[in-house]
Amino acid sequence: AFFWLLSLLGASLLWAVSVQLSTGREDAALPLLPGAAAAAVLLQELCRFACFKLLRKAGEGLAALSEDGRSPISLRQMAYVSGLSFGIISGAFSIVNILVGSAGPGMVGIHGDSPHYFITSAFLTMALVLLHTFWGVIFFDACERRHAGGLGLVVGGHLLVSGLTFLNPWYEASLGPILILTLCTGLWAFGTAGGSFHNVLKCLSCKQEPEGRVVLYSALQVPPEE
Q1: Measured in Å, how far apart are the chain's first and last C-alpha atoms?
Q2: What is the structure's pLDDT at 28?
Q3: One GO biological process from the UniProt record (predicted)?
Q4: Fewer CB within 10 Å: C terminus or N terminus of the chain?
Q5: What is d(CA 121, CA 94) in angstroms, rounded to the nearest whole number?
Q6: For the chain, what are the domain ranges?
């Protein structure tokens, strides 16, 4: 979450400098907003990479201190926690102004605006939290394997989601594709973490051993740490 806040600080400073260098007024600098949003996305992914490097270093330190020479926290666990933290803090900042506005005065739609503003914002925030969690898993795995294609798809997907929000208040054109992308990215992250349809079926079933002990299978087949 701290790394995401650093990216927000960098994006805010970049926007302030851009406004001062262009016209000096924020309302007149609105054409610069798409470029500023893209820069904010790139800053977030850069901070995600810095978070990966820091956690990887911390994992090596924990492995050096452990008795068996292995870190008690796997890289996949770090990726999940990092992505979830990015998502929660990002969702909190994206919804807080909307919640403040919902307290009034006035009513949504009184001037012909969409009455679905609040429910759509809630779904978009939910998708953003999930996407950051999924992106964290995929991003860390791509960095570990040095797979440039995975990194490019994560950054490209983040830019696409950010760009789709500019279609609001045409919510049908923004919310639908974002939810579809969330589902596809979730399946991708599930496969990246070692999940498979066969493991899901095993997870949903229970195996009865001769002693009467029930064994529950995990849906994620996590290989041992290298």
Answers
A1: 28
A2: 65
A3: protein processing
A4: C
A5: 9
A6: 1-199
Nearest-angstrom CA–CA distance, 126 and 136 = 16
Q: Which amino acid is at 47?
A: C
Find out whether 36 and 11 touch, Cβ atoms under 8 Å.
yes
Amino acid at 55: L
The rounded average pLDDT for each run of 10 residues, N- to C-terminus, in the chain (226 residues) is 92 87 69 87 94 86 73 83 93 86 71 78 93 94 90 94 89 91 94 81 65 50 49
Contact predicate 17/26, CB 8 Å: no
**Backbone φ/ψ region at 108: left (φ over 0), alpha (ψ -120 to 50), beta:** beta
- Tally the residues of the chain: 226
- Cα separation, 72 vs 44, in Å, equals 28
